[in-house]
Amino acid sequence: MKRIALVTTRDCDAAGLLQVMERLSRGGPLRLGLFSLEPGLTDSQMRLMEGLAAMGATTSAVASVTADCLHDLDAELVIVQCDPAIGGPRRREQDLRRDLSRHSARPVWIMNGHTGPPASVTALIDPDRDDSTDPALAAEILRVSFTLARALDVPLDILNVWYFLEEGLLRSRRIRMPEQEITERRRRAAWIAQSCFARLVARLPPDLAWRRLAHVQGPVLDAAVANMPEDTLVVAGSEGRDGWAARLRPNLAEDLCDRRRMGIVIVRRPDNASQRSSDHIAPDIGPSDGTDQSDTEGPNRQRNLA
């Protein structure tokens, strides 16, 4: 990812952002479009521009940011450095983050608190509780995760979430299903989710690798994700709900940004999903055997990314 749109605030962490840009520039010079949430440039923003020039990055003049101008940019990645606080002068950051998470066709890296290079990348594949896994969105999450892990030279972990939605009903006083049968149904739900994920992974190029793969029963926002360190970069999908639909059922990545002070990369389902799949995923090599790979290294095992 060499074409980047960088959005900063008046009090940006120039040192941390320069460390990230240095990692991303190792494979070649960067082309950056620079934007500010407030008019005028502060000392920290000037130091950032001087550091980018010193590393040989091509930068544009700093412009005032709007969601529309970011949508029209020829960029592979949008990076927004903002604070998760709500209200006051930070409200504009919240509005921009919300708009990008729902409408941007490009991956959006929200720097919530931690602005330095991450220690690892975690691909969070969550089917949004009531829906089955969207293969196109899951493939895009994996593509972006692999690309960022390689560019940042950090290990990649994959967290595949599955749900057993009827468990509460089966335990209710009206049904009172035996525990043995509930356990068997939960095991089958996990097996189906793992089989679907295995078929998706089987279509990936063989040189794409990860450090750890875990299949976890959801929801995970208050459990597995809550225990992640702040220097983990989480790549999550956004369903793009807006208006009342988003109020009643928040988008996963947007909800994650509100809950955790950590780096979040928001990925939308590509509009031309079939074309993107053929461009980035190898031909199908056959169905998976459904083997449980929880907390293991998986078939495309890690190749020393750290």
Short description:
The chain is built from 10 helices and 11 strands.
Layout of secondary structure:
Blueprint: E1 3-8, H1 14-24, E2 31-36, H2 43-54, E3 58-59, E4 63-64, H3 67-71, E5 77-82, H4 91-103, E6 108-112, E7 120-125, H5 135-152, E8 156-162, H6 167-170, H7 179-202, E9 212-217, E10 232-238, H8 243-248, H9 252-259, E11 263-268, H10 273-280
Parallel strand pairs: 1-2, 1-5, 2-3, 2-4, 5-6, 7-8, 7-10, 8-9, 10-11
Antiparallel strand pairs: 6-11
Helix pairs in contact: 1-2, 5-10
In words, what does this structure look like?
The protein has 306 residues and is α/β, with parallel strands linked by helices. The protein has 2 domains: 3-112, HUPs (Rossmann fold, 3-Layer(aba) Sandwich); 120-280, Rossmann fold, CATH 3.40.50. Helices cover 36% and strands 19% of the residues. The protein has helices spanning 14-24, 43-54, 67-71, 91-103, 135-152, 167-170, 179-202, 243-248, 252-259, 273-280; strands at 3-8, 31-36, 58-59, 63-64, 77-82, 108-112, 120-125, 156-162, 212-217, 232-238, 263-268. Strands 1, 2, 3, 4, 5, 6, 7, 8, 9, 10 and 11 form an 11-stranded mixed beta sheet that branches. Helix 1 (14-24) links the parallel strand 1 and strand 2. Mean pLDDT is 76; it is low at 84-89 and 274-306.
